Amino acid sequence: MMSRIWLTVNDLKQYLYCPRVVYYYTVVPVDRQVTYKMKRGQLSQEELERLEVRRKLSKYGLTGGERKINLSLFSKELRLSGKLDCMIISSESEYIPVDFKDTLSRPHANHVIQLAAYGLLIESHYVTNVERGFIYAIPSKTIYPVEITAKLKDDVNNILQKIEKMIIIQDIPEKSGNQNKCQDCEFRNFCGDVF
Ligand code: SF4
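A: This is the predicted complex of the input protein with iron/sulfur cluster.
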């Protein structure tokens, strides 16, 4: 089913962090306190190029191909858009999303879902099939291969539908189950029932 509302991969990321964050951004926009995490934002084009250009494609297990850095993607079909850190088109014409994460640990489920969302955007934009991607953990310089399965793609679509429903019916979602997230959240002043 086509969504009626345009969403971004960032909405998906925020929703997975806590559904209320997307509620505050979209349904009842509020003046919030800007946190360090927000100020840091996305990596700049220069940072991405510096991180990626010197790395050989063999590090991804590829013999060759070309890279597109900081790639804007959108799909009318999915009503979804996003900016991907890097996309590799291998010499075998395989389209592979690479997402850079500032994480010390192995990729979390939300990182994998975001990568799958980029995979869907690539599929829609380039009329191809995306079956795998990579998450690059910046601090450890580790490349994690991720299989982008049909189940993962269904999960992305299901979450997008949940976000759309939340926005349409304007119903405040349950609070995050993780109090640690609330401590560092720019919306904590608006979540009176959390504290
Ligand atoms: S304060 Fe907690 S419940 Fe409220 S939006 Fe932030 S993370 Fe979610």
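The two ends are 38 Å apart (CA to CA). Residues 7-190 form a domain with the Lambda Exonuclease; Chain A fold (CATH 3.90.320.10).
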